[in-house]
Write a structure and sequence with these properties.
By secondary structure, the chain is an alpha/beta fold. It has nine helices and 17 strands. It folds into two domains: 263 residues, QueA-like; 84 residues, QueA-like (Thrombin, subunit H, Beta Barrel), CATH 2.40.10.240. The strands form three sheets. It has a nine-stranded mixed beta sheet with strand order 2-1-17-16-14-3-12-13-15.
């Protein structure tokens, strides 16, 4: 199943066409980009934004149970990040490549981002390197290029690359996290992964979930909050930058998702009883809103691919509260959070940028390893 901005009502689509990507820009001091996670996951700070009047509170993430009530449902994305970054050398010239796996077509057949791409012509053969940078027997051959400059690689010398990534791959940290210092990369294998991660498939972390500990989830359950999971494998749809001048010009890449029967039933029952659904992360919101859009507002067990692009104004059908991180300027994630801050209106952008300005003044930490927001 595919969804896109056209699933929104005509008035919302018309308004989105007038919104510029630059409208979602903001200035951020470089020192506020988190380079390491908090010492303990739930020691992150939590900015609470109340949608009604725009009031802001400054709390700790472990205070989250204070804002949820018995009967509410907390929904998390349980996708596991794979070691999707590989290194290799051109078997003819010795030139170095960095490979980021994007999507598996079949065993040993992947679409990738390859740097430097201009040196990866059709037929180029690449020897994969181990953790010490030494070329091994595993190889990749460029067999196709798409219009976005991504390469399709066929791998050989390894039975199944997906099963060998722990040997060949690295944690796919975003480029704004500097890991030139020794001794930090190994710790990322644990911290750039949620404690509840299960099915492998993401090439970037669903970062809002990184703040949760087992103890915090137990505390929420003890309060009567139902905790359930869905899966969206994070790929280009989540982290690709918006390059178009207008918001409406951006096209999302499809990402695979699954909403199981037990989770769909728990969420539907809670909503039917007048309780709230709190989504953890923009990826979770996109799954729930995709399923609701396809099924007349109902949440049912469903699996497929989604290209849904949520930006102001948006009529949310499935989510009542949102836990999210602080996102990059001009990103689709910031646009979604802005839409959620003021459903069915465009003023959410100003509310969100005002909250971000407050976070900058208060020295919150931004992006993947940074602090969190709760939008109520």
């Amino acid at each position: 199943m595919d969804y896109c901005i056209a699933t929104q009502h005509s008035r919302g689509e018309a308004l989105a066409r007038t919104m510029r990507t630059a409208d979602f820009d903001f200035e951020l001091p470089a020192e506020l980009i988190a380079q390491q996670p908090a010492r303990e996951r739930d020691e992150s700070r939590l900015l609470v934004l109340h949608r009604g009047g725009g009031a802001v509170e400054h709390r700790q993430f472990r205070d989250l149970p204070h804002y949820l009530r018995g009967g509410d449902v907390l929904v998390l994305n349980d996708s596991r990040v794979i070691p999707a970054r590989l290194h290799g050398v051109n078997r003819q010239t010795g030139g170095r490549f960095e490979i980021l796996l994007l999507e598996e077509n079949a065993a040993n057949d992947w679409w990738v981002m390859l740097r430097p791409g201009r040196r990866a012509r059709m037929g180029t053969e690449i020897a994969l390197c181990d953790a010490q940078g030494r070329p091994g027997e595993a190889r990749a051959r460029v067999v196709e290029t798409n219009e976005e400059g991504h390469r399709r690689l066929c791998f050989s010398g390894v039975a199944d690359l997906a099963q060998a990534l722990e040997t060949w791959g690295e944690v796919p940290l975003p480029p704004y996290i500097d890991r030139r210092a020794a001794g930090l990369v190994e710790a990322d294998r644990e911290r750039y992964q949620t404690v509840f991660a299960r099915p492998p498939g993401s090439v970037a972390a669903p970062t809002a979930g990184l703040h949760f500990t087992g103890a915090l989830l137990d505390a929420l359950r003890a309060k009567g909050v139902a905790v359930c999971f869905l899966t969206l494998h994070v790929g280009l749809g989540t982290f690709a930058p918006v390059k178009s001048e207008t918001v409406a010009g951006h096209k999302m890449h499809p990402e695979r998702f699954e909403l199981g029967a037990a989770a769909a039933r728990a969420i539907a029952d809670a909503r039917g009883a007048g309780h709230r659904v709190c989504a953890v992360g923009t990826t979770t919101v996109r799954v729930l809103e995709s399923v609701a859009a396809q099924n007349g507002g109902r949440l049912v067990a469903c699996a497929g691919r989604t290209r849904i692009f949520i930006c102001p104004p948006w009529n949310f059908q499935a989510v009542d509260a949102l836990v999210t991180n602080f996102h990059l300027p001009r990103s689709t994630l910031l646009m979604l959070a802005s839409a959620f801050a003021a459903p069915n209106q465009t003023r959410g952008r100003q509310m969100m940028l005002s909250a971000y300005a407050a976070a900058v003044r208060e020295r919150y930490r931004f992006f993947s390893y940074g602090d969190a927001m709760l939008i109520l």
